[in-house]
Every structure is written in C-alpha cells, then in structure tokens.
Amino acid sequence: MPESAHARLSRDDDRIAELRQAFRPALEEAGRIVIGQEELFEGLLIGLLCEGHVLIEGAPGLAKTLAARTFARLLDLEFRRIQFTPDLLPSDLTGTPVYHPPSGEFRTRKGPIFTQILLADEINRAPAKVQAALLEAMEERQTTLGDETHPLPRPFMVLATQNPLEHEGTYPLPEAQLDRFFLKLTLGYPPRQAEQAMLDTHAGGAVEPPQPMLGRTILRQAQKAVTDIHLSQQLSAWLLDLIAATRAPADHGLNNLQPLIAHGVSPRGSLCLARAARARAFMRGRSYVVPDDILAMACPVLRHRLIPSYEAEAEGITCDDILRRILAAIDPP
C-alpha cells in the first residue's frame, strides 16, 4: 500500500525535528556569548542553511564581529576577518602569484578569501576593484589569480558589515552586488534587560570562547533537509503576488506606493524568499512553510533588493516601510 500523504508528512516532521534539535545547544551557547542578538544568530544560520551570504548593518559596538566569530567557531568552520579600507587591493583579498627563484616558477599565495566564513568588515570602504573580486567569489564560489581559477572551500559564506551612521570615505555597494547577498540584517540596540546581562556576564573581561558544537555532517544534512521543505502552490502564488506588488503596486490596488518605488525586486528575490521561508520552517521544526515564515523573512530578503525613489528618500520612507505596507495589503491564502 502506498504511503499516505499524512504519514509522509509526519515522518518528515520527525526527521526535521531531530535535525533541528541538534542546533539547540549551539543556539543556547551563542545566546550566552552574544547577548540580546538571538535574531542575528538565527539569521546567520538561515543564510548558511541556504548557502547564501549575509550583509549586516548596524552601529559600532553591537557585537557584529563577535557574532561572526562565535558563529564560525560553534559550527567548526574556518574563519577569517579582513578589514576593508580605501587602499585595499584585490590581491589583498584573493592572493597573488609569487615568483619562486629556485624553481623559476610562479607559485600561488592564497589570500584570506580562501576560508569558509569570511568576515568582510566595513565592506563599503573598499574600492570598486575589490568589490568586483569579492563579487566573483560570492557568485561563482571561485576566484581568479593570474591565469588560474581556484575553487573556494565549501561551505563558503561572506558575512559583510557596514556602518549606517558614517558615509565619509565609503563606496556605496552597487545594486548587482547587493542582490548577491541572500539576507540583509539590520541591528538595533539590545533591550535594557539584555544589556544588564552583558554587564553581569562581561564583568570579568572577555567571555571564554565556545567549543565547536555542530559537525559538518549535520550541517550538510540540514542544508539538504531545507531543500525538501514543502512550499504549497497557494503560498507560492501569494509570494509571487508580494514580489509583483514591488514592481507594479497599482496593479494590486497600491496606487500610493507607485511613486515611492524606482525598481522592484528581481526574480532572484523570489527564489531567495522561498528558500529563506523554507529555512525558517526548518528552524521551527516543521517540514512545511506557513505564511508566518514568508512574513518574517520578507524584509531581510527583500529590503536591499527594492530600490526606493527619490521621493521616498525625501520623505524619509524606507524600504522596510514600503514592504510592510505591501505585506499588510495583500492577505495570505
């Protein structure tokens, strides 16, 4: 007798719940070290589960670097950090061929990009040539040194940070590169209770670094499980309606948004939102996507892909404001 849909769904739920349980100790340990930034760490995990890159925007002192380092250590992944500056060269990132006199040959000296988790600190301070080198690595999972192309380790994930408060000496990221970031996470100040916990926890100085808690086998299994999460046709149609409303708001009864949007979300945004919703369902221990998964991931996935008009910027209307209006106006199935 063929397996019923209900029995298959129950079996998938059990498998997802078991895999999700393996992540619990790592999440708890991350909360001990990076206090008050639970959503940031979950966002990083969702990005890794979907094999995407994450852009983190927040003021200095919000533990962006600590979160990235803790994240890599808990998952037992190789981590490197590079400080982006206006005088940075592509070779500082990718490496360079170096002449070896005894052999008369050029040998490759690999740069910090050859790692699994790369923290690109203050990414918007690097010039265009460095951005282009990073873009190749992000999109192709490879980098070119001289005449040779070298594959990057797997998994490979770029965690980039930028400071929204300071723009002097910065180079705004081009839309093509922004679109390659799977998520854009924005950080605010932690609540008072969390900040009090920081004072208590860090009274003795630096917190002891964590031990690895997740093996690469579990990570690969979780990445495979995310691709198997069920997204119904009804939710897919609703998701596409949300994306379409960023391109032609008037077609969805949102005439007041038309002058606020210069360019809508690309098809890559549709694909990324579906993948992120699946990953969030996994993080909740479900084998299927519900409307809340799409609602929760809409802003992190789409905020850097939607280009507001000059009118919106003049009125102080952000991409998040526009997206919230769309989400409120188009009801889920």
UniProtKB/TrEMBL annotation:
Positions of the ATPase AAA-3 domain:
53-183
Q: Which residues form the ChlI/MoxR AAA lid domain?
A: 258-326
Looking up SUPFAM superfamilies in the UniProt record yields: P-loop containing nucleoside triphosphate hydrolases
Keyword Nucleotide-binding recorded:
yes
Q: Does the keyword Plastid apply?
A: no
Q: Which Pfam families match?
A: AAA_3 (PF07726), AAA_lid_2 (PF17863)
Task: Give the residue range of the signal peptide.
Answer: none
Protein name, please? MoxR-like ATPase
The record, for PANTHER family, names: MAGNESIUM-CHELATASE SUBUNIT CHLD, MOXR FAMILY PROTEIN
UniProt record similarity statement: Belongs to the MoxR family.
Task: Give this protein's Gene Ontology molecular function annotations.
Answer: ATP binding; ATP hydrolysis activity
InterPro entries in the record: ATPase_AAA-3, CbbQ/NirQ/NorQ/GpvN, ChlI/MoxR_AAA_lid, P-loop_NTPase
Q: Which UniProt keywords apply?
A: ATP-binding, Nucleotide-binding
